[in-house]
Design a protein that fits this description.
40% of the residues lie in helices and 25% in strands. By secondary structure, it is α/β, with parallel strands linked by helices. It has a single domain (25-255), classed as 3-Layer(bba) Sandwich (FAD/NAD(P)-binding domain), CATH 3.50.50. The strands form two sheets. Strands 1, 2, 6, 7, 8, 9, 10 and 11 form an eight-stranded mixed sheet that branches. A three-stranded antiparallel sheet has the order 3-5-4. It is globular, with a radius of gyration of 18 Å. The structure holds ligand 48F.
């Protein structure tokens, strides 16, 4: 016999128990694209309590869509070791250009990150941050459905030692901090430099260079790093995203 009310209780009770335990954490990541998932995997694997809020229904960000909806991604040789780490299969298309299935890549990243201990909360948007004297100390969240419907419902806050902006092209968390801190970012101008037009080779290199602390206790990874520090976009080549996620996890580990 199947009791509907037990199903209801199982879902609500287990979700809320974990959510309550996530109110304070070591690291909060905004965005479950490739860089956020990769960062979350390496941090959770090290034993840090790592929470990820994702606005969308499903994780993956720009990865599952591949290039122009063709579900393939390209990765350069430097990214191969991360594909191996996550069990993502690939083949050499031409020397130094590896092709993988973008759905398999998304599934493997998500699977390994969750199994390493990353807590992913989908359908939740980060709409503000908490800033104290020491820098960023957490985020303010609301249901994405509330945001989309433009309902007047107050959000709640979650505290962490570190926040990582992995929100991709719009670099949403850094935009909030720029606006609310009066432009005191650790960028050359103190403000967001802005993303430049496509140049895959330079962009891939710069994504890793630009993976940094951009305000005390706030780091940028992936496309957000390039948008904040003035790097170009790169299109459907993904090695830089994965390497940036790994790098930010290493930087945060050193700081913690
Ligand atoms: O855009 P996205 O995949 O970011 P990424 O990890 O990777 C970029 C590539 O996909 C691609 C590219 C190159 O290869 O240029 O675009 O840097 O994932 C960002 C995720 O953040 C979520 C959004 O729904 C997406 O899944 N997101 C954005 N803003 C918020 C957010 C927010 N305020 N709160 C929660 N999630």
């Amino acid at each position: 016999m199947i009791e509907e009310t037990i199903i209801t209780r199982a879902i609500i009770e287990t979700y809320l128990k974990e959510l309550l335990d996530s109110v304070e954490s070591d690291v909060i990541i905004g965005g479950a694209g490739p860089s956020g998932l990769c960062a979350g995997y390496y941090l959770a694997k090290k034993g840090y309590k790592t929470i990820l809020f994702e606005r969308a229904l499903k994780p993956g960000g720009g990865m599952p869509g591949g290039g122009i909806m063709f579900n393939r991604i390209v990765v350069q040789p430097e990214g191969k070791s991360i594909l191996d780490e996550f069990g993502i299969r690939y083949h050499e298309y031409k020397p130094d250009y590896y092709v993988a299935d973008s759905l398999e890549a998304t599934a493997c990243l998500t699977d390994k990150a969750i199994k390493a201990g990353l807590r992913i909360y989908n359908l939740i948007s980060i709409e503000d941050v908490i800033i104290r004297d020491i820098g960023v100390t957490g985020v303010v969240i609301n249901w994405s459905s509330v945001e989309i419907a433009k309902l007047h419902i107050d959000p709640v806050s979650f505290q962490s030692k570190i926040v990582i902006d992995a929100t991709g092209h719009p670099s949403e968390i850094v935009h909030i901090v720029e606006r609310k801190s009066g432009g005191k970012l650790l960028t050359p101008s103190g403000r967001i430099e802005g993303e430049k037009s496509m140049w895959a080779e330079v962009a891939e290199r710069m994504t890793i260079q630009n993976t940094k602390e951009v305000f005390p206790n706030l780091y940028v990874t992936g496309m957000s790093a390039n948008a904040v520090f003035g790097g170009p976009r790169m299109g459907p080549i993904f090695g830089g995203m994965l390497l940036s996620g790994k790098k930010v996890a290493e930087m945060v580990t050193q700081k913690l």
